[in-house]
Prior knowledge:
There is one protein chain. By secondary structure, the protein is α/β, with parallel strands linked by helices. It is built from five helices and 15 strands. It has helices spanning 10-13, 33-44, 48-51, 71-80, 93-101, and strands at residues 24-27, 55-59, 84-89, 105-106, 126-128, 137-140, 145-147, 156-159, 163-169, 172-175, 184-190, 194-197, 200-203, 214-221, 224-229. Strands 5-7-9-11-14-15 form a six-stranded mixed sheet, with no helix packed on it.
Amino acid sequence: MQDSTRAAPLHDTLRLRGRSCPFLTLEIGAGDAAELEAALAARLAASASFFRHAPVLLELGALPESAAPRLAGLIQAVRRMGLVPAAFRGARPAVEQAALAAGLGRMLEAEPRQELAEPCTRRPSVVVTEPVRSGQRIYAAEADLIVLHSVSRGAQLLADGCIHVYGALRGSASAGIAEDPHARIFAKIMDPELVSIAGLWLGAEEIPEAWVGRPAQLALREGGLRFAPLP
């Protein structure tokens, strides 16, 4: 008797999609592995738990061809800090080959966008009507994120646009993660563990005490993150 069982068609069991996903980006300079590891340890000292096991995109454009033999050591230094190097971009040919040999993926570059007379509009805002608990992670892709309650410590908010919190912001908030320097973070009570805009971030210990526990907004100005009162 012939077995009538058939394997599921490939298109039913496998889906390959191109999506905009938040990646931590790390620019690697010309230093050696020890210098890189020491710099990362100092930068992540107070916020390492937020980035542990986070996928990382390595920017390798600053590395000369001569850096190819030591790239594997640099990647291992990043892994020792609890990060997960996943892909690279901007590498010279010899460095690119070393990155591929080390198991990194080549980041797909987006097609150049046509300049439009009018700025493109975002998707409708993502509105969260419940408190955001510790351990929750909410991402608003190509949209602003609006939270009508408080955000607990250990929770994560991410948005390609702005983030608005109408209660206490005590977890982490990352706005403009699609490298939008015009994004902002607004909170009725600003008391976060970490905030970032377009890749620049501050840990809790770096936030000026004058702004902790107050209504405040955060914006990227003059190359740095600046706090200001809410209107």
